[in-house]
Amino acid sequence: MRMTICGRAAMAGAAILTLGAGASPAAAGDAAEKPTGLGRFHTQDIDWHDCALSPDDAAGKRLDDAGARCADLTVPLDYTDPGGRTLTIAVSRLRATGPAHRARPLLLNNGGPGGPSLDMPLTVGAAMGEVAKKYDLIGVDPRFVGRSTPLDCGWDVGSSIISAGESRASFQRSVARQRDLAERCRRTNGDVLPHVSTRNTARDMDVVRAAIGAERISYLGYSYGSYLGQVYTELFPGRTDRMVLDGVIDPARYNQTLLADAAGANERALRSWAAWTAARHDTYALGRTTEAVLSTVRRIQRAAVEKPLRVGEFRLDEHSVPLFYFGLLGSDLDGTRAELATATRILQRAAGRGPAAPSAAMTEVLTALTTKAGSHQGSVQTAILCGDVAEKRGVESYWRDIQARRGKAPFAAPLAYNANACEFWDAPAEKPTVVDNDVPALLVNATGDTRTVYSGARQVRERWSHSRLVTVPGARQHGVFGEYGSACADGQVNAYLADGRLPERDVTCRN
């Protein structure tokens, strides 16, 4: 599982993300981005090569086996100085196999921020079926992500998103940790951080568009990728064709406490999972009622307050236990729910101070969240968010928000409203983008999404009057297309990608 604040839900171990108002919006005039001085990047020769970097590169080999090719494109670090330092952006391409008259290239983004997307032509191509034959599927690892020029702040953990814990003292410890994480990034990557932003990633996308010889691109972005797609349309109007945004972020609500709007959805998701688990007490032995299962989770959390839980080589304290649960509440599919129930049994043993060995899936999650192995993705994720919208709110404001909401959301509020490293970040180099255009797009969202809440999709739909919204009611799922098994939603996306015609009206999918 990947833990991303706003990444897809197929992530039993994602790097968790959240979406504060901040600096004043950018002027609408910067919609007219000019390629002045960028000609050498737009016309660069592309050296397409094998994707596997070594015999042990399983992901690269899968791309090669599917017939994909990879390349490293050059982009400027600073778009105001195109003659200065450069970066490389890793790109994959799975060529269309249909008739010569095919649709434009389809660029793919997996969310995050900071989610690698190089292998997406394989997963999205499988979901598209025959429609994929009409497209060149383009996976792009955004700047500083995955195989692109890396950024790593040398953290000893994999996420800057943590729970404030139970007490004022634990909140203060979490704040001290955030200050330390921000200082480590400033010390190790201070010259680069001003150029880590969604706006620059959108500019990189346009270099990719030009370099592959496309007048316009189609785009499919999940979660944070929906925000990236919206920013691209604002900076580069008229350069998009078919757009699918799945798990839609309202750009007016994009801020450093990105998960705040989702606190209620996560609280409800936890209760729903507890009901599912209670109905399977004979399998998991965590309680025969919803309240009994929730009591088990509360006992685990209280034990972590007293002393960190020991799970194999890992340690989970009151700050990381809620984060672990959050990562597995991105989907209500049986497989993910079973994974969380199995992990809870292990945590229950750890809370009783008995031997507790993690499962393979649990090991993947805990490695990403609690060790240096997750430092790269956590660093990039935080740098993008803070590079977009870091705002000095004052530490006390977070504590007040947590306390005001703890009663209704005891599990989620200390995580969703807690201070993060953005509080201690340098001010963004550019103001956030105001998305005030109206672009035809297909929007997809589940009503119970625990990352990008459904109200955000509704807001974007109202502003983009030419768009259409596909709703999956009742689903507690983040990332629908190709992820949830909704024949209706998948069919709507594929029909739109096939012929470019949006549904006549919004669609509600009940299967």
Automatic annotation (TrEMBL):
<dbReference type="Pfam" id="PF00561">
    <property type="entry name" value="Abhydrolase_1"/>
</dbReference>
<dbReference type="InterPro" id="IPR029058">
    <property type="entry name" value="AB_hydrolase_fold"/>
</dbReference>
<dbReference type="InterPro" id="IPR000073">
    <property type="entry name" value="AB_hydrolase_1"/>
</dbReference>
<dbReference type="InterPro" id="IPR013595">
    <property type="entry name" value="Pept_S33_TAP-like_C"/>
</dbReference>
<dbReference type="Pfam" id="PF08386">
    <property type="entry name" value="Abhydrolase_4"/>
</dbReference>
<feature type="signal peptide">
    <location>
        <begin position="1"/>
        <end position="28"/>
    </location>
</feature>
<feature type="domain" description="Peptidase S33 tripeptidyl aminopeptidase-like C-terminal">
    <location>
        <begin position="413"/>
        <end position="509"/>
    </location>
</feature>
<protein>
    <submittedName>
        <fullName>Hydrolase</fullName>
    </submittedName>
</protein>
<feature type="domain" description="AB hydrolase-1">
    <location>
        <begin position="105"/>
        <end position="281"/>
    </location>
</feature>
<keyword id="KW-0378">Hydrolase</keyword>
<comment type="similarity">
    <text>Belongs to the peptidase S33 family.</text>
</comment>
<dbReference type="InterPro" id="IPR051601">
    <property type="entry name" value="Serine_prot/Carboxylest_S33"/>
</dbReference>
<dbReference type="GO" id="GO:0016787">
    <property type="term" value="F:hydrolase activity"/>
</dbReference>
<keyword id="KW-0732">Signal</keyword>
